[in-house]
Amino acid sequence: MPKVKDVMKKPVLTISGEAPVHEAAKKIAETNIRGIVVEKRTEEDVYGMIVIRDIMKIIAKGIDLKKIKVHEVMMKPVVTIGPDMELEYVARMLVNLSIARLPVIGDKGELLGIVSMMDILREATK
Amino acid sequence: MLVTLKNVPAASLVGTIFVVNKVGKEVNKMKAQDIMTTPVITIDEGATVAEAIDLMLRNKIRRLIVELTHAEDAFGMVTVRDVVYKIAAKGLDPKQIKVREIMTKPLISINPRLDVKFAAEVLAKANIAAAPVIGEHRLMGIIAIWDIMKALVE
């Protein structure tokens, strides 16, 4: 069974919590990567994440994406996983949390990659 | 905001929020049919999940519309989420499971003439990522939150 480190995407797209949501939306549209990790503010801080669904809620409310900041809509803290977890467990974790992607964090809290449903799908028929 | 109101009937302004993207294109005047993805890749409900996965990967898409089985039937949908949540998470073999066992059916659908702004509201309120665009009893395309976000920022 393949592990997280075998399929995760790297490097990870990141953004500052102070950036406007519009910038996050642009990054997502340009790169086709649907979840952006929100950078830590300090060494002790935790990561956040902003995904396309968060942005959609803002659009649906008719709020100008340039007038709202990433930290106002992101999820933080975000659940993270280590690089050695087997993909079947990752899939179960996604189900339990009702999410589509998880940042992968190393021993020292460093961001290693991001693993998503699409990465698991690619392995599903192998 | 850069909105020209002169051609808009007053009644349509009630409760309407205008969304304008950076080039001044009025996204609220765009219709679902202007930004939907077409043609739609479909699959038969009797196909295996393995075949569905193959079709998604080859076409680089995240969802397939499941074909009608008779004239009065409703469309279904099978997505990456269905495969990961219902097959991969349970350790099941996608070659042994049929699309009809994991699909969503019936679906919330969007009229091709619906304003993109309302399409965004429908998708956000239903907490779904995409819906088929159906007009005159015909499947015309798929509209996803991705399409709407792209239309807004580009």
Task: Describe the secondary structure blueprint for this structure.
The complex is a heterodimer of chains A (126) and B (154).
Chain A (H helix, E strand, L loop, with lengths): L3 H4 L6 E2 L5 H11 L3 E4 L9 E4 H9 L9 H4 L13 H11 L3 E5 L5 E6 H8 L2
Parallel strand pairs in A: 1-2
Antiparallel strand pairs in A: 2-3, 4-5
Chain B lengths: L31 H4 L6 E2 L5 H11 L3 E4 L9 E4 H7 L12 H4 L13 H11 L3 E6 L2 E7 H9 L1
Q: What name is given to the CATH topology of chain B? A: CBS-domain
- Proportion of residues in β-strands of chain A: 15-25%
Number of domains of chain A: 1
Radius of gyration of chain A: 15 Å
Q: Given this structure, which CATH class of chain A is correct? A: Alpha Beta
Strand content of chain B: 5-15%
Strand order of the largest sheet of chain A: 1-2-3
